[in-house]
Amino acid sequence: MTTTQHPELGSVPALIRAGIPDLNPSERRVAEVFVDRPTWTIEASAQEIADAAGTSRATVVRTAQRLGFTGYPQLRVLLARDVGLGSERPAAEHPHASDDAAGVFHAFLRDVALTIDDALALLDPADVRRAVDLLADAGQVLVVGNGLSLPVATEMAMRLNAIGRYADAPTDHVEQGVRARRLGPGDVCVVVSGSGSTRPTIAAARAASKAGAAVVGLTASSTAGLADIATLSLVVGLGAPSFRDDITRTSRLPQAIVAGGLVRALSERNPDAAREAQARMLDVIGEVFLQDPR
């Protein structure tokens, strides 16, 4: 991650969480201390952070730099600025935190809500506007996603179709590659990938870019392979500190919400056309239901 000299007010906790997946294990432990104990971090020395994370002082400094800060002192100062603005509380302070089913359930919902806050803090409005411009002017729209990202891609394509913006989201990765090669200048390939490094997804993104299409990345990583290919990337953190957590514990809901936000913004460009398309879709949906189900 490049150094962030002046992160926006309130964005530092989100910047730290978003950067965790790109860190190595020892750096990740340091970043987790920052996230789990933000108030203590503000008062702690680099050596105290190192002791808490079971690593070295040099790793603490390097972690702060990898997260985009000039060093640990800047991270502490800006964290102190931002902690009082949000609801950054250790998990133990949350009233529903426990090991029973209800506590785990509430903790999961809180984690998802936190990723939405992070998305609002980190998404650049200029990038959002550019993504909507590209979609509005596109001749063809291909939405690509695999694994846990596939449902997000499928839903986005369906919602685009519902507002009159034809889009396709093939589920087979071979077909994704073929379709990507058939794109051209003026077309858009939206690529959904939590890790930003899934091989079939990256292959389709590379093929679309080589064909001259714009590539809009919807990912949780600002440094993985997709970042090097995408015309622009909308980085939406999933809150997963590790790949194992990514595939077993996290939700793609934050990416789905951002995708839905893009569709909503696009529909406002031509609300009359969007309403007409929605009416046609409702006619089709109305024919699906049985008149007298038994």
Description:
- This protein has 294 residues and is an alpha/beta fold.
- It folds into 2 domains: 12-122, Arc Repressor Mutant, subunit A (Orthogonal Bundle); 125-285, Rossmann fold, CATH 3.40.50.10490.
- Helix content is 57%, strand content 7%.
- The chain has 15 helices and 4 strands.
- It has a 4-stranded parallel beta sheet with strand order 1-2-3-4, with helices on both faces.
- The protein is elongated and about 65 Å long.
- The protein starts with 11 loop residues before the first helix and ends in an 8-residue tail after the last helix.
Strand order of the largest sheet: 1-2-3-4
Low-confidence segments, given as residue ranges, are: 87-96
What is the CATH class name of the largest domain? Alpha Beta
| Domain tally | 2
First-to-last CA distance: 59 Å
How much strand? 5-15%
Order of helices and strands: HHHHHHHHEHHEHEHEHHH
The number of helical segments is: 15
Mean pLDDT, as a whole number?
82
Helix amount, in percent?
A: 55-70%
Annotated CATH topology of the largest domain: Rossmann fold
Radius of gyration: 21 Å
Class based on secondary structure composition and strand pairing: alpha/beta
CATH architectural category of the largest domain = 3-Layer(aba) Sandwich
Large-scale geometry: elongated
Query: Biggest β-sheet, characterized?
Result: 4 strands, parallel
Brief sketch in words of this structure:
With 294 residues, the protein is an alpha/beta fold.
List the helices and strands and how they pair.
Blueprint: H1 12-19, H2 25-36, H3 38-43, H4 46-53, H5 57-66, H6 72-83, H7 101-122, H8 125-137, E1 141-145, H9 150-162, H10 173-181, E2 188-193, H11 199-210, E3 214-219, H12 225-229, E4 232-235, H13 243-248, H14 253-267, H15 271-286
Parallel strand pairs: 1-2, 2-3, 3-4
